[in-house]
């Protein structure tokens, strides 16, 4: 039992270290020595526990995506019978928190930027699966607000609008740097709430005025 517990602890330390190293160096520049050195583990530990750096990279993405879902669930803690507007604002707040907050989401944003700048193709399936799960919530609430008669293109028009607004640079841009990257500090909870309310009102105004009917959707 002690051996198993020690192995699980070492595995967690390697994942935690890899989150940091991959976020600063990217997949290709990160080495076994860097990760295991930070984790305080033997450099052979990655192969032993994960089978190699590629599998570790995928494990890191799954760890951070699951952490973001726990920390900022798209459905929030809304009571049964919450309105479509409440559900939309909660989803928007979750997206803002994931892109501009702290914790696992902050590490995930770093990793995502490194993957965007120098894509590996190693985690495309993991990211797509995660996106598809959360997307169901967004499509559901937009369908409720637009009405069952709304076309798929109209629903996706507002979906793209929400995503673009949530991902916008609300502080200052993340700038890739020679050593890792430079980034703005996380946005505070009060500002995140204000932004969530503003984006929700903006989208609702578009729905009310049927802007999608003149947008070519």
Task: Return residue spans where pLDDT drops below 50 for at least 5 consecutive residues.
Answer: 173-181
What is the radius of gyration? 20 Å
Roughly how many Å apart are the termini? 60 Å
- Alpha plus pi helix count: 9
Average pLDDT number: 88
The oligomeric state is single chain
Rough outline: elongated
Name the helicity range. Answer: 55-70%
Overview of the molecule:
This protein is mostly helical and 217 residues long. Helix content is 70%, strand content 2%. The chain contains nine helices and two strands; from the N terminus they run ααααααααββα. It has helices spanning 2-29, 32-39, 45-50, 53-71, 84-100, 104-117, 124-146, 152-167, 189-208, and strands at residues 175-176, 181-182. The protein has a two-stranded antiparallel ribbon. A hairpin with a 4-residue loop joins β1 and β2. α1 packs parallel to α6 and α5 packs across α8. It is elongated. The chain starts with a helix and ends in a 9-residue tail after the last helix. Mean pLDDT is 88; it is low at 173-181.
Give a summary of the structure in a few sentences:
With 217 residues, the protein is mostly helical. It is built from nine helices and two strands.
